[in-house]
Amino acid sequence: HERGKVFGLFGAIVGLGAVSGPLLGALLTEWNLFGLEWRPIFLINLPVGIAGLILGSRFITESKAPKALKLDLVGVALVTLGMLMLIYPLTRGRELGWPLWGHLMMVGSLVVFGALVAYERNKGARDGSPLIELSLFRVKSFAAGIAVQTVFGIGLGIFFLVWTLYMQIGLGWSPLRAGLTGVPFSIAVSTAAGLSVQKLVPRFGRKVLQAGALTMAVGVLLYIWESDHYGLGIASWQMALPLIVMGVGMGLIVAPLTDAVLSEVPREHAGSASGLINTVQQMGNALGLGLVSVVFFGEIGDRLARSEVGPAFANAFEHALGWVAAVMAAIFLLMFALPKRPAQHLEGGGDDGSGAAPAKEREGALAG
């Protein structure tokens, strides 16, 4: 009964992270600590990880399954191989002239994913500990939500990379200015995410997510228009309006989507389901990054004079954003398969009303 509030808070925190991340990354890059240039953006994970260990050991309650599941190393290997065979040719294909082996690898990835499904089905029947719980895909809302999450991840993977390249290489802005330009977007995401689950979804249901997809598409189209209208003289404040519109749209999606996907999933599979949601979004991001080679760099000539760099990157940015808008339209249509209103499980209470959730349910929730 409090899950909506939790995901609303989760979405707001994601937005705040989206504010602090680019700014901190820009500062670390510009400060050039110890002459390491951009490398401290990775070292920042060390203090964050240490803080996570300390706070986690203090505030997260220990939870153990009555029977430990076996690691599905074969499943992990098949997923990794399939993604490598799909994304590597997309990333390097244009640079290498789209060789035959790249096309064969992408076709072969479908064979690997087919083998993964067959293996996971067999492993689930054999010992009940597959990497991917295939029975979850018989739940319509979950299967549709996974599709939405994957396509959404592709759109975000394309946008954030080409946006950065456009500002820093195309417009010649510093990392700090680029990071500051994204602040209105992040604040909009955080605000809309906090409101969507707690205020809007209980009243309007699935329409909130669909409104988010359309709003984000409108923001993308507005950004294309501004980039073309103002050209290379565009200012950070002129980008604020499309970024705010896009941020509101993303906030209306990012928090309630997880709630909608999990709403009809059996409690005993809550951990597997939430893990899959996060995984497919990351896979979508990776696929989107691979597609940047096609939808962005494919529009840029191999040898550009200094005066041609800015216009070329601006044109490629607008072309890539056209694809992002198309992705948002596809997400809008896919969302018709989501439940009109997410079912409200009483995640915090057992059947006896005592408030003691079954151990397996607690384990699944924590695993997620």
Order of helices and strands: HHHHHHHHHHHHH
Q: Which whole number gives the mean pLDDT?
A: 85
Mass-distribution shape: globular
User: Can you tell me the CATH topology of the largest domain?
Assistant: Growth Hormone, Chain: A
User: What is the count of DSSP helices, taking H or I runs of 4+ residues?
Assistant: 13
Total E-strand runs: 0
CATH architecture of the largest domain: Up-down Bundle
Q: Low-confidence segments, ≥5 residues, pLDDT <50? A: 345-368
Strand composition percent: under 5%
List keywords for this structure.
mainly alpha; Growth Hormone, Chain: A; single chain; 13 helices; globular; 368 residues; disordered C terminus
